[in-house]
Amino acid sequence: MKLFTGKKVGVSKEERALSYYKYFERELAKIPEEKLKLIDAPSEIPAVSFEERNLFLAGKDKNFCQIGYGVAQDGTGFVCNETYMPNVTGEMLDWWFPWHSVGSDLRYKIWDNEDHYFARVDNAAYVCDPKVPVNQKTWGVNHYVMEDIGASPSFLKIQFKSPADFDFDTAIIGTKFCQSLVSGIGDGDCAAAMVHKWYPHKDGVLFCSRFWIGFSLINSPLHTRDFSRELSGAL
Q1: What is the DSSP secondary structure assignment for residue 38, as one 8-state letter?
Q2: Range 117-122 contact pairs with CB under 8 angstroms and sequence separation of 24 or more
C-alpha cells in the first residue's frame, strides 16, 4: 500500500494567488514508522463501541484500540487514530473546522494536498455569523466533501452534530482529555459515525479520532451496516 502518491490534487490560478497557497506547497508530515507497521493487519484489540463513546471522550478507553483498524463483533468497522500536533492549540482547531468549509477549496486541500479536493458547507451564513461561537460553527450543518479515502475520489456528505445531538455527556467537554471536539455522520461510499477530539499535550495538542464504520442516518434514527463479510477479504 502506498500512502503517499506524491501527486497533489489540482489547483486553479486563482488558488495559487491566495496568501495561504504556500501551505499547500508544503510536503505532508511523515507518518511515524510505528503507525505504518499497523497497516499490515487489523487490530486484535477492538475500539470502544459506539454505544460507549463517552468513554472515548473522557479518556477512559485506554484498554481499547487507540491506533488501528478492524471489525467489531457486531460486524461494523472501526478506525482509530491519534496525532500529536506540536505548536497547535485547541482554539486553532475550533477555528480550523469552520474555516475550511467556506471560501476557497484550497482551504480543504491544505489539510491533505494529495486526497482532499473540496469541502463546502450548506449554510455559509451561519458559519460566517460572528454571533455564533467558533466552537459551535459546525453544529447542525452539512459539509459536502470530495476526497479520496483509498480507492478513488468520491463524494461525501458529513452531517455535523452538536455534542448533545450526538448524545455525548457534555459535562466531559472542557475536562482533561477533551478540550473540544467535532462530531458527525458521514453519508457516502463509506458511511460512518465520526468524532475528532483534542486536548493539550506536551507543547501542542493530541488530536484523537474515532470512525465507527457502517453507521448512517436514515430519517434521523441511526442505522448500522454489517461490514464483517465485506471487509474480511480486505483485512
Answers
A1: G
A2: 117/9, 117/146, 117/147, 117/148, 117/153, 118/145, 118/146, 119/143, 119/144, 119/145, 120/144, 120/145
Distance CA 201, CA 15 (A): 34
Q: 145 near 122, Cβ under 8 Å?
A: no
Displacement of CA 219 from its chain's centroid (Å): 23
Query: How far apart, in Å, do the first and last CA atoms of the chain sit?
Result: 13
Cell for 171? 459535562
**Could you give the angle at the alpha carbon of 135 between the alpha carbons of 133 and 140, nearest 5°?**
90
H/E segment holding residue 196: strand 192-201
Which DSSP state fits 17? T
The sign one gets for the Cα dihedral 198, 193, 99, 172 is negative
DSSP-assigned beta bridge partners for residue 209: 81, 196
Q: Which residue has the higher pLDDT, 92 or 29?
A: 92
The chain-wide mean pLDDT, for the chain, equals 90
- The answer to whether residues 82 and 208 touch, using CB atoms and an 8 Å cutoff, is yes
Give per-residue pLDDT as tens, 180-191. Answer: 999 999 988 788
Q: In the 8-state DSSP scheme, what is residue 175?
A: B
Q: How many CA atoms lie within 13 A of 97 on its CB side?
A: 27
Give the start-to-end residue ranges of the domains of the chain. 13-232
The pTM (predicted TM-score) of the whole model is 0.89
Separation CA 122–CA 143 (nearest Å): 6
